[in-house]
Amino acid sequence: RAKSSADPGYRIFDEDIRKALFARRRIETGLAAAVETKDLEIWFQPIVDLSASQICTYEALARWRQPDGSFIAPDQFIPVAEETGLIEQIGLLALERGLEAMRDWPEGTRLSLNTSPRQFGKGVLVPAVAAALERHGTPAARIELEITENLLINSGPEVFEDLDALAALGVGLVLDDFGMGYSSLNRLHRYRFNGLKIDRAFIQRMEEDETSAAIVSAIAGLARCIGMHCTAEGVETQAQLDLVHKAGCGRAQGYLLGRPGPHASAQPTA
Ligand code: C2E
Ligand code: MG
Ligand code: MG
Ligand code: MG
């Protein structure tokens, strides 16, 4: 749609782009510095085993501390980090900080780490994970890597070689945000995962929407049939917790059970 520069709408649009580019540059340069300093923090959110009613895992989640003490959420900087490649360093930072933090956790509690597709197929991830486990004396079975479905789309054999090598080390592999990507079932067929996490979009619709509840039950049943564990993400209410338990999810994560925090939290009472 052509607009003359005399049209005020056009100038506003220009100004918006300028502001967005400026904000983005600030994120890029600031984030690189934050990774070097301690301003990029790694927080932990519990995942609860519903049959044992206890925390089985903590998921590591990045938080960027600002000079005023507030935090920028990952939604704002992870996409930038993905584009610039900084996500590779953030991944290694989460691994290192996570393994350090684990020393204070109860025996058997696992660490779950988010990964970016950019970390795979470069010959860096597998040796870095192996070396970090060795250095901390942590058994590989105590960590899980969360992978999103888009890793498996259009990826070459080197990505699958990394997944195989991680599985051979004994590291758990979990599909994150399950249900939000394309042809999810085909992905399950192509690669054998240890578990999946059902995206919170489904969980949060369960109360009002019978279809979402049926989808969650079906995914949980499928996971059980092929020997995968199944985590419900984003559980915020007792009603949702009851529904995901009834649907057959063995694990749950969400604000009801514990928010992300700078230290692994105590046992939930829910
Ligand atoms: P994710 O891996 O799906 O992590 C779950 C997100 O849901 C987290 O958001 C968590 O704080 C949020 N959440 C947990 N329970 C609830 C709930 O009950 N209600 C609601 N509304 N939200 C809940 P967060 O920490 O903002 O992270 C967003 C995404 O950023 C993560 O989604 C993950 O994909 C990515 N991310 C975070 N840290 C890292 C990292 O170190 N590396 C990589 N590659 N990605 C990361
Ligand atoms: Mg995750
Ligand atoms: Mg998720
Ligand atoms: Mg998510």
TrEMBL record:
Localization of this protein: Cell membrane
The organism's superkingdom is given as: Bacteria
First and last residue of the signal peptide:
none
Q: Where's the EAL domain? A: 24-270
Protein name, per record? Diguanylate cyclase (GGDEF) domain-containing protein
Species per Swiss-Prot/TrEMBL record: Stappia indica
Within the intact protein, the region shown is 611 to 880 of 880
